[in-house]
Amino acid sequence: MSLPPKDGHFDPFAILTPRLILIPTPVAINVNSYRALYASLHADVHFCSMAFGDHFPARNWDDAQTRTVIQTRDIDRSWNRHHVGDFAVGLRGPAHSDDTTTTGSILTDDAFTRFAGDNLEQIQWVGYAGVRDATTTSLPAADAADADAVGLPPWQEMVELRYGISSQFWGGGIAKEAAEAVMGWAVDARGVRRFIAETERGNSRSGRLLQKMGFGLSGTDYWKEPSEVEWELVVQ
Q: Which parts form a coiled-coil structure per UniProt (predicted)?
């Protein structure tokens, strides 16, 4: 099981799936090749339109800006609050093809070093997947600031699932594999009891993906955006 940050130090760990390695962004932020991938996603007009809608146009961030975005939006607002957040999603390459580590296992300490070691820059990063407390990250500011007054559940039941995969890998099941791995970790390591998500109404691809993972329409109006559809999955 992964450990939360202590005194500003984050113990690195990884989640493995049959095809993927997932690294939390407090580690991945220092990987040049991942920052480059993250920036390229948000510079892709098609990706931004599908993922975020027209209100979030593509942006051309330099490396310093990319690092700042990851630090402020994910590490400061997610990992440093409830020890949940985004994971960099990479492909397990030929060097790991003979690895017998149990799928879905968490690698920490020496196991992480043996598996990933100094090879993080060589991994082919394809996107991100994460879970975060929506009340501190993405809900309208008024509701987030006064969660109790508006009757929101505790944060373990307001955990937003998010993912973004490079368009060249769409349709291959990578988003589902990564999202399910992160959700499993969140339940086991952080006690999450309910996941929520939102998709743009025109993004039927993400809607179908959420349904495959067991999400259903929630009927909530957390984000208060007519252009968005809201979903939920209660942990059984």
A: none
Cα–Cα dist 50/236, whole Å: 30
152-187: b (≥16 Cβ within 10 Å) or e: beebbebbbbbbbbbeeeeeeebbbbbbbbbbebbb
Say how many Å lie between the first and final Cα of the chain, rounded: 21
- What is the per-residue pLDDT across 23-46, written as a single tens digit (0 to 9) for each? 999 999 999 999 999 999 999 888
Token pair 């020890």 is at which residue?
83
Q: Which residue has the tokens 């968005």?
A: 228
110: which DSSP letter? H
* C-alpha–C-alpha distance, residues 163 and 122, integer Å: 22
Upper half-sphere CA count for residue 63 (Cβ side, 13 Å):
8
DSSP code at position 9: B
Contacts of residue 143, Cβ cutoff 8 Å, sequence gap at least 6 = 135, 150, 152, 222
Task: Indicate the angle between helix axes 45-52 and 204-212, nearest 10 degrees.
Answer: 60
Q: How many residues does the structure list for the chain?
A: 236
**Sequence-ordered list of residues with C-beta below 8 angstroms from that of 70, at least 6 positions apart, any chain:** 25, 28, 29, 35, 38, 86
pLDDT tens readout for residues 175-196: 999 999 999 999 999 999 999 9
Kindly give the residue spans of alpha helices, DSSP state H, lying in 86-173. Answer: 109-115, 134-137, 141-145
Q: What residue ranges in the chain does DSSP mark as E strands?
A: 13-16, 20-24, 86-91, 106-108, 124-133, 159-165, 194-200, 216-217, 228-234
With contact defined as beta carbons under 8 Å apart, do 49 and 43 qualify?
A: no
